[in-house]
Amino acid sequence: xxxxxxxxxxxxxxxxxxxxxxxxxxxxxxxxxxxxxxxxxxxxxxxxxxxxxxxxxxxxxxxxxxxxxxxxxxxxxxxxxxxxxxxxxxxxxxxxxxxxxxxxxxxxxxxxxxxxxxxxxxxxxxxxxxxxxxxxxxxxxxxxxxxxxxxxxxxxxxxxxxxxxxxxxxxxxxxxxxxxxxxxxxxxxxxxxxxxxxxxxxxxxxxxxxxxxxxxxxxxxxxxxxxxxxxxxxxxxxxxxxxxxxxxxxxxxxxxxxxxxxxxxxxxxxxxxxxxxxxxxxxxxxxxxxxxxxxxxxxxxxxxxxxxxxxxxxxxxxxxxxxxxxxxxxxxxxxxxxxxxxxxxxxxxxxxxxxxxxxxxxxxxxxxxxxxxxxxxxxxxxxxxxxxxxxxxxxxxxxxxxxxxxxxxxxxxxxxxxxxxxxxxxxxxxxxxxxxxxxxxxxxxxxxxxxxxxxxxxxxxxxxxxxxxxxxxxxxxx
Amino acid sequence: xxxxxxxxxxxxxxxxxxxxxxxxxxxxxxxxxxxxxxxxxxxxxxxxxxxxxxxxxxxxxxxxxxxxxxxxxxxxxxxxxxxxxxxxxxxxxxxxxxxxxxxxxxx
Lengths: 478, 107
Fold this sequence. Notes:
The complex is a heterodimer. Chain A has helices at residues 11-19, 25-40, 51-66, 109-116, 162-169, 186-192, 226-236, 280-293, 310-325, 327-332, 341-350, 355-376, 421-427, 457-470; strands spanning 46-49, 78-82, 120-125, 175-180, 195-198, 218-223, 266-271, 297-303, 381-385, 432-439, 445-451. Chain A is of the alpha/beta class. By secondary structure, chain B is an all-alpha fold. Chain B is built from 4 helices and no strands. Chain B has helices at 5-11, 36-53, 59-83, 100-106. In chain B, α2 (36-53) packs across α3. The longest helix of chain B is centred in the middle third of the chain and has 25 residues, at 59-83. Chain B is flat, with a radius of gyration of 19 Å. Chains A and B meet through α9, α11 and α12 of A and α1, α2, α3 and α4 of B.
């Protein structure tokens, strides 16, 4: 008899059980719903369990399979959606107390596409309020409470797609949808020990998703493996007339990737200073990951990353666009109902962003994109740890020192610094995938980031699949 | 009350609060040394926040907003010094005169 452990399996394996009738989509959905109810709330991972909709979709999936209609790899597979994706008739709260009762009368494009692919929506998953757009400073920044990593619930899940990552890690759902403006898929993927794919800007429609920053927002999958991320991306990517930034299509090959490409090895670059200031576990695991990758890739060390003000540009752009996106909440004073103290006032400073600063940030972005593209044109991927540190503890502000520790000193001018891959990749709209690479102190996960050229998802996925064929970090369970 | 985006980047992402030299021709101000001009602008913008949104903010919150404004101005200044934009450098955003739905119909 197949039990709830099946939810820790890959999508292909679960699908094989469904097609062989060893498991029904309804039983699978019930398992997922039960775990969401019992485990999800302990992790602060769930906003709404969509039981009625899930069971209706699961029954349909079952009937179709019995009738010989197969919608593809996601047919009958349960999933969760970050609670910033519109779902008809179900609350879509954006993680924010003043919007707890917000209900849309349509489905976001990704939700609609996943339904067409036969997937079963079982939950709206927790997130940092307003996707962190107003500048939160503590893990407890959602009306559902702090997101907790299933590996050690005393530590943060990462954000802002906190519930999406935690739900996958805890085996509540095989995959989930998250969003990233600057780090919101990669960070929780890293802290929860799952695989997260940030697609190229414009590859996945944002229609029906909360807007934080129109020129930076992306939607993407979090799942147990890179192969699963590829299957999900294949279902949600592609042109959508309702999102004018879309245009490119994406098709993931249906068979598992072989080690490397036929007759060809990958070429990867290890970024200079990638481990400067990292936690010792992160550095150790990164070295081990590079050692594994040498089996399938030519590895060039010490690749300089263009030293440009990515973080500053992201900051100005998010401030200006976020102020416009949430202007009603800010001007009405409803931001006072937000959970995190910094979120309650951050919007007022954002409202004062100078127009010329914003336009200059958008102008500087052109040169930054060109520099990064020139560098990435020489590699299949650039490598660095996804996060330099392990997940921080619940209950402490991000900028507060650990108890008894002195405040972190300002870095000396000219001192080596780790490459700012997350703001850089987001500013340039580049794809990246985060894959687990080990477990450090207190059983907290570490993560490897693969950054690629625009629309190079297929190569990134092939490389990540090859890495995961050689390692088993993504198969471990909390 | 600390405001957090850059604090967050520093503490969680391991990214610097203040980057080192960004462009050889325009070294930034030393960390923690806001320029007098930006301080004055931050003060003026904080006053604008107080006048427009003062009903929603107490004194401590206004002080936090002012601090964040100063940080934002410093950050924008660093960006400006590093980017060295010329008159012809266009922004990345592109406006299209034809609405998307009209484009769809033409295809």
